[in-house]
Amino acid sequence: MPDEKEFLKSYNIKKYEQPSVAADIAVFTVKNIPDENYRKLDGKKLCLLMIRRGKPPFQDYFALPGGFAKKDETVDNTALRELFEETSVENIYLSQLKTTSTPGRDPRGWIISCGYLALVDSTRLSVKSGDDAADARWFEVGFTRLSCEQLENEKLTRYRLELINGENRLSADITEKISLGASGREYSVTAENSKGIAFDHAEIIACALTELRRKTIYEGAAFSLLPECFTMTDLQQVYETIMDVKESDANFRRKMSGFVQLTDETQGGMGHRPSKLYKRNIEAFLNI
Amino acid sequence: MPDEKEFLKSYNIKKYEQPSVAADIAVFTVKNIPDENYRKLDGKKLCLLMIRRGKPPFQDYFALPGGFAKKDETVDNTALRELFEETSVENIYLSQLKTTSTPGRDPRGWIISCGYLALVDSTRLSVKSGDDAADARWFEVGFTRLSCEQLENEKLTRYRLELINGENRLSADITEKISLGASGREYSVTAENSKGIAFDHAEIIACALTELRRKTIYEGAAFSLLPECFTMTDLQQVYETIMDVKESDANFRRKMSGFVQLTDETQGGMGHRPSKLYKRNIEAFLNI
DNA sequence: CAAATAGTGTCTTTAAGACATTATTAT
DNA sequence: ATAATAATGTCTTAAAGACACTATTTG
């Protein structure tokens, strides 16, 4: 195509103003919370990685890890690259959330953000990452439903987002709106009174939590937060922490039975009956 | 924050190379296909809007409608704006698909594409749109599953994408890959042998079709392709066209009974029992 | 009446939830 | 023995699928 070559030579993409594109990643992990009673099981907490900003804008606020996309890489790659720098974990689970581009969302200028959800098994995190002198910290996540208001054509659900790491307490009020117009079912999330959270990241976090819950129900995301071998109680605890519900043991085991496979190993040494270790049933996952 | 003002003044976002960002929209509608037999019902076909490119690159190929994001608008807005120009329909159903940024995907340079899924009830389309002398055309969509290969840790499903508008026949071979690594369940779509379809748009279309099917199952997307009032048979035909399956009448009605509401009106005048008209049950949709 | 679509009823299978019960371990 | 968790069993309810049947209209 000689015409095409000719055309491209004279084509100047720079004549229009261009945005910067960033990847912003909500990385979750589930950490064990030890119990003093030797007989009792550890608890579990959902945690989110946040980074203290060292310079303006939003200096000293906490932001999601992320960075600008470079030419000659995909934005997915930007996310993986930034993530590796922060957590030293490779082969991390990553999936796209929505792309946010509200004018004015970043005071530095026109910056479009691709949101990502990442899940890491906490046993794969080196002790130091997100815990050393650096400014990356794991925050315990609270995402409680406060109220639900059903109007004529829309439903408003309010949540309280709380992120806690020792002294540092971040928070925001989240409103999830489901509305039904002539054209169909619309879904939107907004954040207000964002405290200590930089940019519109509270909104992206809320979006990530909603997606994490959806993926937990429909795509077995809980398994991405566990090591290869796990007990049924581990799985149930992770499920319950993410979903913020309590399940009946018997029913939960039945519900999951198709997605797991018994191994030969067991986990004992605690003042009670030892538990069998399971791993994922690959076949089942491929056919979800 | 005087520091922040100071900082922003000296901040030059332009010192790094920047991409262009485009919205590419897969707009679907379901068209009636009349039957000569006066007694028989019309059939239905899923259709996709494509635009013939008037200049390089990919001159004379068909591409998804779309365009570049402008400063001071969201990319969602870019999509709605471009869509209105092509179809003259406002209040269209729109939702984000994935954002694609493979290097080299556009020969003009570094262009990141935000994919969108849009659904329009065909009765709201003016006769001329996509049908006049302009280069916008509605293509009948074929998306047939050819084979499914299950390997150790991955499953490959192959589809044939065919787009037909009279003389114009576009096609591509689609491979959907679900793989299960240590980190979790990954999903990807690729297109090969793309014939007559510009850029990587075959891939975006495949992605849109998969999302449309998911939304049809879980979010009642079929209703966005129907007018406010519809018969149960309309709904079932749309469902079957999208999903490429055949449902049993009785079971389908039962399955949908919670999502619809009977109206007083009926639709008669065809050599058989007249059918009742339904509309969506708003309450049910808000609580999906 | 015949052709065609509209709409209902019943039986079976499968999954989800409530709740009670038994099993095994370290101290 | 006891405290604690692990694991199974049973009954009920709700949804999904198979399939046979009845109802209504126009030419």
Word description of this protein:
- Two copies of one chain form a homodimer.
- By secondary structure, the first copy, chain A, is an alpha+beta fold.
- Chain A has two domains: 20-221, Nucleoside Triphosphate Pyrophosphohydrolase; 222-286, Winged helix-like DNA-binding domain superfamily/Winged helix DNA-binding domain (Arc Repressor Mutant, subunit A).
- In chain A, 23% of the residues lie in helices and 40% in strands.
- Chain A contains six helices and twelve strands.
- The first copy, chain A, has helices at 2-10, 75-87, 201-219, 232-243, 249-256, 282-286, and strands spanning 20-33, 43-52, 62-63, 66-68, 93-100, 111-120, 136-150, 154-165, 168-181, 184-195, 260-267, 275-280.
- In chain A, the strands form two sheets. In chain A, strands 1, 2, 3, 4, 5, 6, 7, 8, 9 and 10 form a ten-stranded mixed sheet that branches. In chain A, strands 11-12 form a two-stranded antiparallel sheet.
- In chain A, a hairpin with a 2-residue loop joins strand 8 and strand 9 (168-181).
- The longest helix of chain A is centred in the C-terminal third of the chain and has 19 residues, at 201-219.
- Chain A is globular.
- The first copy, chain A, starts with a helix and ends with a helix.
- Chain A binds a DNA duplex (27 and 27 nucleotides) through helix 5.
